Amino acid sequence: MAGFPEAKFQISPNGWINTDVFMSWLRDCFVPAVAHKRKPVVLFVDGHTSHTSNIEVIDLCIEEQILLYCLKSHASHIIQPLDQSLFGAMKQAWGEQCQKVMNQTGESISVRTFTAALKPVWDATTRPEVAFNGFAKSGIYPYNPERVVHADKLAPSRTFSTAPRAAATAPPPVAVTAPRAAATAPPPAAAPSPPPV
């Protein structure tokens, strides 16, 4: 792949990651990349089943002293480090690059031109300091749970805001109590039956 001699290419039936693609990446990319690191190492993943449902993944992590840590489901927009920094910058730069290629060539990016178009985006956005910033912003490293607790994305919606409402928009209070007499009075006596005819 032009511009990415070390890259590995994978496909799946629907284009999304699956257990086979993740296992291949873990075994062929991640394990060699951290082989020289002091063990154990931590690998943060989201809770997608491709990361957690394959026993071979678990076995490899145990063997290689990799702590596979799943971030809380449905919270990646708050605590996933690369969502906090790198992916946003990359998405914006990729959109600009796609527009630039279209303006220059009159054609959209194809499989054949993808890596050449991606290379300047990759070089501009995948810098170590951008990734480090994501870990700091998410409160993972340096450890700071206040970064998550006070995240703007956890602020209450306007519907549940504690700010006082204007009197005109507040609904009137409704009393839901039964009269005391009704609760303690004996049931009414049954009416006598008419005499048989």
UniProtKB/TrEMBL annotation:
Comp. bias (Low complexity): 161-184
Database matches in Pfam families: DDE_1
Transmembrane segments: none
Region ranges (Disordered): 160-197
Source organism superkingdom: Eukaryota
Ranges where the DDE-1 domain occurs: 7-111
Pro residues bias spans: 185-197
Identification of the protein by name: Uncharacterized protein LOC101853055
Lineage start: Eukaryota, Metazoa, Spiralia, Lophotrochozoa, Mollusca
Gene designation: LOC101853055
